[in-house]
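ok trying this again, last paste got cut off
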Amino acid sequence: MNLKSVGVFDAIGRDSLKNKNVRIESFFNIFNDRGAEIVFILSDLENDPCISFYKDQLYDYNLPLKIDIVAVKAIESWLLSDSITLSALLQRRFLYDDPENTQTLPLNELQEIFLEVTGRGLGIGYKKPRIMKKFIKNGFTLERAATHPNCSSVKYFLKKLKEFSEA
């Protein structure tokens, strides 16, 4: 979308965004020094009732950067939305009907699906970065996840990216 990234960092857990954190502040300052206009924060809502509740808990660094937050129950719902990649990984046709409304956290739902279908699960100590790499290696894209009729958060994220690319 003709957007240029000036950097990426892992906050190492959503709770680290709720209080002043010198490490996070230094990343925001680095991004600001590099000319960033906006910082996107991708975060899980986990058990928070809504995004407004979550946003109100975040520490305000009072920087000139615009900060936009995309938060869903869990970002792994986007993985559940890409039926083509899920089907490739599970080696059978697979569609998850409502990825943003799982009974458990989507990561746990993925683990259960893989255990049931493959008998192996996602792997010992399944870690999000390894799972994401596995999905990307097998064709996962945000655009394809956005074609799922019940995954509005990925559509919103892509819409925001498009808005900023056209600004």
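PB: full thing came through this time. The beta strands are 38-44, 66-72.
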